[in-house]
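note to self: dont lose this again. the chain is below, predicted strucutre after it. 123 aa total, dont forget to put it in the shared folder this time
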Amino acid sequence: EVQLVESGGGLVQPGGSLRLSCAASGFTFSRSAMSWVRQAPGKGLEWVSSTYTYNSNTFYADSVKGRFTISTDNAKNTLYLQMNSLKSEDTAVYYCAKGRDYYTDYRRGFGSWGQGTQVTVSS
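---
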């Protein structure tokens, strides 16, 4: 059974930093496309960033480029999102998501999701 468990969210002031983690199990992490997707209050889902665990290529939404960094530790089956220079508009529930199948393009959508972790940016 695929499991994705996010952690690391919380309350942070504008300009601050947080690092989110996503512990993965139940599949071969090192063959997957992994992504972060967020949902702000009252809004739809917004793709944030993706990476391929087998070649470390990374991709970012324009809204977070230069501020967020996605990475993985394949030995620990863990996905990370380092978030710097946080803004109030980054406030959202952040979800970890797995690609639909091994070695598939992240743009083809997601097969499994975590439960999400809340990030609130406020003074």
